[in-house]
């Protein structure tokens, strides 16, 4: 029987705020939630974990260089990786949400050498859901009628939302996305830009980062790890690249199309990639290599 005990870790000054979160969680009357333990102690929060969702990271502040941001986050994710190594189960599934999510995830994985790298993933399900929803709105169908969009690469503005393998259910029959939308210029232009820039657009409008949609994407991601993906459906998540898929270099956390069974993800292989897609997949890989190399240089510091 599946049930959930939530261990909520925050820094000591935030513990009174965390009490408010605990009350809200209790007030949701969630069917699987059995207990909630707020704490400021890593040894409590990470002890025997089955699943870890790492949401806290240093947000970019005014005047901060990308390099400074990476340096601050390397320190955070090195320490969280070390805590996972020390206290969590070796089977723990780790989802990194805090930005830059892919590189933070790689640093956490490198800092927990006895936990398999395959147990680490970063959130690109939010981008996946955004892409699905944009296509659905364009075709005037529910989002559930759109499957197999792909987010390739980094959870950043270089990500590549790809609909070449996406199917849309229009009045009972499934069409290729390009045939359903009937607007190639939009799919190759504004659609991609909208998904790539959506996080920034939400911040501009709300003066705060995405919250509800990010939480929904985290639930989607974790539920799929635990229960598997539906037959014929793939989802996007940032996973460890071993250099064997789609020409993506190894030692990166790169978002791929994956299918999940028995809590194990597999990259969907053999999808045809045209030159339009390849260029975009390479560009986002190049950004990840640069981020990784900067971050890894800070690891020993
Ligand atoms: C998002 O995609 O909404 C967030 O990752 C944006 C951000 O920088 O917090």
TrEMBL record:
Residues 124-298 form the Lactate/malate dehydrogenase C-terminal domain. The active site is at residue 155. It catalyses: (S)-2-hydroxyglutarate + NAD(+) = 2-oxoglutarate + NADH + H(+); (S)-malate + NAD(+) = oxaloacetate + NADH + H(+). Keywords: NAD, Oxidoreductase, Signal, Tricarboxylic acid cycle. InterPro entries: L-lactate/malate_DH, Lactate/malate_DH_C, Lactate/malate_DH_N, Lactate_DH/Glyco_Ohase_4_C, Malate_DH_AS, Malate_DH_NAD-dep_euk, Malate_DH_type2, NAD(P)-bd_dom_sf. NAD(+) binds at residues 10, 73, 97-99. Its EC number is 1.1.1.37. GO terms for biological process: malate metabolic process; tricarboxylic acid cycle. Residues 6-120 form the Lactate/malate dehydrogenase N-terminal domain. It is an enzyme of class 1 (oxidoreductase). GO terms for molecular function: L-malate dehydrogenase (NAD+) activity. CDD domains: MDH_cytoplasmic_cytosolic. It holds the Pfam family Ldh_1_N. Gene3D superfamilies: Lactate dehydrogenase/glycoside hydrolase, family 4, C-terminal, NAD(P)-binding Rossmann-like Domain. Residues 1-16 form the signal peptide. Substrate binds at residues 60, 66, 99, 130. Catalyzes the reduction of aromatic alpha-keto acids in the presence of NADH. Plays essential roles in the malate-aspartate shuttle and the tricarboxylic acid cycle, important in mitochondrial NADH supply for oxidative phosphorylation. Catalyzes the reduction of 2-oxoglutarate to 2-hydroxyglutarate, leading to elevated reactive oxygen species (ROS). Belongs to the LDH/MDH superfamily. MDH type 2 family. This is Malate dehydrogenase. It comes from Dicentrarchus labrax. The lineage of its organism: Eukaryota, Metazoa, Chordata, Craniata, Vertebrata.
């Amino acid at each position: 029987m599946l049930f959930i005990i939530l261990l909520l870790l925050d820094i000591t000054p935030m513990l009174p705020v965390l009490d408010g979160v605990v009350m809200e969680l209790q007030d949701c009357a969630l069917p699987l939630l059995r207990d909630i333990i707020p704490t400021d102690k890593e040894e409590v929060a990470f002890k025997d974990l089955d699943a870890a969702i790492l949401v806290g990271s240093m947000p970019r502040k005014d005047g901060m260089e990308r390099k400074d941001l990476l340096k601050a986050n390397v320190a955070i994710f090195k320490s969280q990786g070390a805590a996972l190594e020390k206290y969590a189960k070796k089977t723990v599934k780790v989802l990194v949400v805090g930005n830059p999510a892919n590189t933070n995830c790689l640093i956490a994985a490198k800092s927990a050498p006895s936990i398999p790298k395959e147990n680490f993933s970063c959130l690109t399900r939010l981008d996946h859901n955004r892409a699905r929803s944009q296509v659905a709105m364009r075709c005037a169908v529910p989002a559930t009628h759109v499957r197999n969009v792909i987010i390739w690469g980094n959870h950043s503005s270089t990500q590549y939302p790809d609909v070449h393998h996406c199917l849309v259910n229009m009045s009972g029959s499934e069409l290729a996305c390009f045939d359903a939308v009937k607007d190639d210029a939009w799919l190759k232009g504004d659609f991609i830009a909208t998904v790539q820039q959506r996080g920034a657009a939400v911040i501009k409008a709300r003066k705060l980062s995405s919250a509800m949609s990010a939480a929904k994407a985290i639930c989607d991601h974790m539920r799929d790890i635990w229960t598997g993906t539906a037959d014929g459906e793939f989802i996007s998540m940032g996973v460890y690249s071993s250099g064997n898929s789609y020409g993506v270099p190894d030692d990166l956390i790169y978002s791929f199309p994956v299918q999940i069974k028995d809590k194990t993800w597999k990259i969907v292989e053999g999808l045809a990639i045209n030159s339009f897609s390849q260029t975009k997949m390479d560009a986002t890989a190049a950004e990840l290599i640069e981020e990784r190399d900067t971050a890894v240089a800070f690891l020993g510091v």
